[in-house]
Amino acid sequence: MGSDKHWITQLDEEARARRDQRSFHVFAEGEHSDARGQIYNLEAGGELDIWQDKWPRHLFIVIGIDGVVDAVVEGTTHSLRAQTQLVLPPRTPCKLKARTPSAIEILSLLSMPPRGTSAEESDK
User: Fold this and answer.
1) Are 74 and 95 in contact (CB under 8 A)?
2) 3-state DSSP call for residue 35?
3) CB 93 within 8 A of CB 56
4) Buried b (16+ CB within 10 A) or exposed e, 27-66
5) Which domains does the chain have, with CATH numbers?
6) DSSP assignment letter at 11
């Protein structure tokens, strides 16, 4: 819902309405963009790895929408529920496991190196 210049979505309602879909994009669908947003509907026990190997220069933001999901980051388990936000800097692996039927949103953004450094230097 929105216009060519903005989008607005009530995430919990959208996730429930599309529960039959394992995942769907909420913006940038069908368009090239370095910013992506995707909703995942997980069944209890369902697992998902954040794709740090595939996109090593991306910052990931995981937002709980519905249910309870455990996020394992660097040996620590965090519990994500509605309105919980987890930020993962580039190259920070994370495994998600749903304790209950759950919905989460994963936003990814290309993280640029600080000014004065090259991408190769920041990859070291």
Assistant:
1) no
2) strand
3) no
4) ebeeeeeeebbbbbbbeeebebebebeebebbbbebbbbb
5) 34-112 (2.60.120.10)
6) H
Give per-residue pLDDT as tens, 55-92: 888 889 999 999 999 999 999 999 999 999 999 998 89
Q: Residue 95, CB half-sphere, CA atoms under 13 Å: how many? A: 10
State the Cα angle at 100 between 11 and 98, rounded to 5°: 80
Assess contact for 66 and 12: CB atoms under 8 A.
yes
Specify whether the CB–CB gap between 47 and 117 falls below 8 A.
no
109 and 45 Cβ atoms separated by less than 8 Å = no
Express each pLDDT in 11-70 by its tens digit: 788 778 888 877 776 665 555 567 788 889 999 999 999 877 888 888 899 999 999 999
Where would I find the H helices in 3-49?
11-17
- Give every CB contact of residue 32 below 8 A, 6+ residues apart in sequence: none
Phi-psi region of 115 (alpha: psi -120 to 50; beta: other; left: phi over 0): beta
